Amino acid sequence: MMGASRLEQTDALFRKNLVIQRRACKTNCCLILFPLLLCSVIGGLQILVNHASSHDVPTHFDCSCSNVTIDENAMGGMDCASDCPLPRAPKWPPLLRLPQPKYRAVQDGLFPSFTDLPDASCRATWSCPATFLVTGGNQSFVGSVTDSMFIAQSSSVNLSVDIAPLSDFVLADDFTFLQNKCFPGLALFYPVQLGNEIVSEEARCAEGLMLWRDSSWTINDEIYRGSYQGNNEKKTDEIAAAYDFLSSDQANFNLIISYNSSNNYDEYLESEYPVPLYDQAGSVQKPHSVQVARLSNMASNAYLNLRGNDLKMSFDFVKEMPRAARHLGPIDISPLIGKLPFVWTMELLFPVILSNIVYEKQKKLRIMMKMHGLGDLPYWTISYCYFLLLSLLYVLSFMLFGSVLGLRFFRQNSYGVQFVLYFSYMNLQISFAFLVATCFSSVRTATVTGYFYIFVSGLLSEVLFRSYVEDISLSRSWIAVMELLPAFSLYRIVYELSQSTWAGSYMVSSGIRWIDLNDPENGLAGVLTIMVIEWCVFLLFTFYLDHFGSFQNGIRKVAALVYSCINGNHFQAAQQNIQLQEFGASVEMERADVIKERETVEQISKESNRSYSVICSKLKKVYHGKDGNANKTAVREISLCMSRGQCFGILGPNGAGKTTLVNLLTGFSKPTSGTAYIEGMDIRLNMDKIYTGIGVCPQDDLLWENLTGREHLMFYGRLKRLKGAALAEAIEQSLRSMHLIAGGIADKLVGKYSGGMKRRLSVAISLIGDPKVVYMDEPSSGLDPASRKNLWTAVKSAKQDRTIILTTHSMEEAEVLCDRIGIIANGSLQCIGSSKELKQRYGGSSVLTVTTPAGEEEEEVEMLVQSILPAARRVYRVSGTQRFELPKQGMKISEVFQAMEQAKSRLHILAWGLADVTLEDVFVRVAKECDMPTAT
Question: Residue-wise over 215-239: b if at least 16 C-beta within 10 A, else e?
């Protein structure tokens, strides 16, 4: 037998899957477009955020100050817009941050014990001094220091020519300078460069009031009670700063500074405080302040001045660090919504792939294709390619919609890097789904488990794995171990891409690039390596489990093979002894025809040229008990042979082992011992080759609901190497023989077929492609009488030059179709032969049926039959109808007829008949004689 090549099998499966997926186009499109839903939701939120923040985000910045050269003798210009490039930063004087005049500390009831605070009337003229509290171990020394903190100036100062003395003045961020005492008209003018123009800016005088307190505890309490509480209507009293000089004296200088780090001072309107504010790029800009450094410098300079050595600690300017242009635009919300939506979206295909694989397993479509010649490699290749194509479209959809909707998560990272990472993960996800599918036989269970996995793994990634990634004290090796779970690998990818986007929220050049894959900080190279290795390992495990069924079976088979190679002769001799002992124990209970069949099988097994198509040699199947239950023997040492051109019928009660025997011959299950040869090939070793030349009509209709009858035959015909005109002719012939032509039945979806139509299609599939051996497991079940007759005609015409193995419960069907019949009960072959031989051999009686009016004549009829043949036995009596078994030995048919004709004259015999035993009678008799539990 020569089956289709792997390329032909792949082509057939590809064409079949293409038709199925074309019909499922809407479902696939919805699946591929699902990322659009996520991206649309995020994009909609982004649009709302953009709209809400559009009034606060300037559309244009004046970046002319970025390239201004600051002269050493001139004050640098105003602060550039925060998003402009700053290749050469301007200089700023170190400014002191002061409370707003209306919130400066005064006598208003909060501090009744401190009478040295200014009167509250100063708030009306915005002239309240900035209060500084001081304490220390040496009050006189502290007073000398604080008296020297501010330069005494009685007239205005103009620094338009030389601004070096500017560092001597204590400038505040509200464009004032501090002195112990201010005089009318006292001001400080200094140059400011705006663009290419230098203008003179005025700083007004503000008084700085130094007040002594006895302890730092007192200072702390006063500052706390006067702190700003966030309510503009409340008259709060804020202290500018506080000094604790500790044990300072002329020889030692120790200092603790208390300062306010709040940025709430600018929450007032220009109309409330007539100080010039500089407006650039549509927003108010203020000079920078260096609070602690300036407070410390004030005390240090005062201490040096007190020492009288003409020492001076100048604090001239501060400047920003040069920077590149910062990103201008609205806030990107994609990093803010977290990683989970992206992770769950990418994982969504896992339960889809898993349920598809388990569906073909649950419906036994995979084994049906395999029994018609489809190899494992073409099946897994086409399945993998389909899911890979689906995954690629899904990833491209994910990236495309995210980019079109403006999500920086997609736009800012390199598209090439994203594609490689996602492509690698999708390959890993497919192989992982293939591996997990070997553990399930129910689509519902697999689907629920798949969705539960993506939900739980996503939560664990966010709650558990993320904390480990961000914990720099944890070894990266443990992170790599955790990334062995595919969900964690995906989360790490999304996390790093998101982090790079978040880190680059202000910078133009950011995101993950190819060069960043080698960065050990993000670990993406390690994740990529782990995914590739796991992808290969999962595929290998999948093929292993698909072939052996479980790890234990594979190990057991390898161990048995090794053991047989080492101790081959001893092992074979032991097996033969065991089989001889079992054979000897069973021969005593076997009938002569069964023994003869076994001897024929043994004789055939010794011949090199076998003319029999199917040979079963001591075939046995034992199902091992679980949970303490005993083992069940479904098939017991069955030996039989079937020649070409013959239909062999297998009869037996429910649970007798008929279907189990067919499953063994078709490779659906493996024999416990013994073997069978199909066209000379051993079912234990050459099942893949056997599949190329057999046809199977299983007990259940294993069909695709979304394929037509013609498409089913086309697919299985291609697996039998039929092409072109030969394929079309074979399909038409099969459809005509099964009466599936009329009314366009052949081109309707199988999901719309009736049970009888599906059964006829299953028979047609088993016969297409001229298989040498055909298995039909109850082919006429569910058919009406007319369809059953048509099926019998097709089967009788199809058995020429091929072997048909048929199981049935219909004795009529067995008599019409089967050349030889074997009756199985409790897993054992009870008798074998043609229908006529079985009737003669096991039907040693005739059946006499007599019908009279119900009443006393029934007893007279029984006495009449006993007078004809004393060995007669009544087996049936209902409402005047009686049936008697008449042993053929000692019975003469003429005497029966003569006696019955004579009895008509004195008895009211309505009807009578004498018939030979039927096959049904033989079946019932054999089943009753086998008084033991039936096999499963």
Answer: ebeebeebbeebebeeeeeeebbbb
Q: Which two tokens stand for residue 748?
A: 């309707």
The 10s digit of each residue's pLDDT in 207-222 is: 999 999 999 988 888 8
Distance between CA atoms of residues 777 and 523, nearest Å: 58
* Alpha carbons 208 and 35: distance in angstroms, whole number: 63
How far, in Å, are 727, 730, 767, 852 from residue 770 at the CA level?
A: 11, 9, 6, 55
Rg (CA), the chain: 49
Q: What's the rounded Cα separation, in Å, for the pair 122 and 799?
A: 119
Percent helix, strand and coil across the chain, each to the nearest 5: 50, 15, 35
The 10s digit of each residue's pLDDT in 675-687 is 898 888 888 888 8
Phi, psi of 56 (to 5 degrees): -95, -15
- The CA distance from 174 to 177, in Å, is 9
Helix axes 443-460, 340-347, angle to 10 degrees: 160
Percent of the chain with pLDDT over 90: 18
SS3 per residue for 672-715: CEEEEEECCEECCCCHHHHHCCEEEECCCCCCCCCCEHHHHHHH
Please compute the mean of the pLDDT values over residues 593-598 and round it to a whole number.
87
Q: In the structure encoding, which two tokens stand for residue 703, read together?
A: 């069909």
In the chain, residues under CATH classification 3.30.70.1150 are 844-916
3-state secondary structure 322-338: CECCECCCCCCCCCCCC
Amino acid type, 268: Y
Using DSSP bridges, classify how beta strands 256-258 and 241-244 pair: parallel, antiparallel or unpaired.
antiparallel
Spatial distance between the Cα atoms of 672 and 631, rounded to a whole number of angstroms:
12
Q: Say how many C-beta atoms besides its own lie within 10 A of residue 733's C-beta.
A: 15
Interhelix angle 6-23/376-404, nearest 10 degrees: 40
Architecture of the structural domain at 844-916: 2-Layer Sandwich (3.30)
Helical pair 724-737 and 755-767, crossing angle rounded to 10 deg: 140
What pLDDT, in 10s, does the model give residues 50-99?
Answer: 666 555 555 455 565 544 433 333 333 344 555 566 666 767 778 888 88
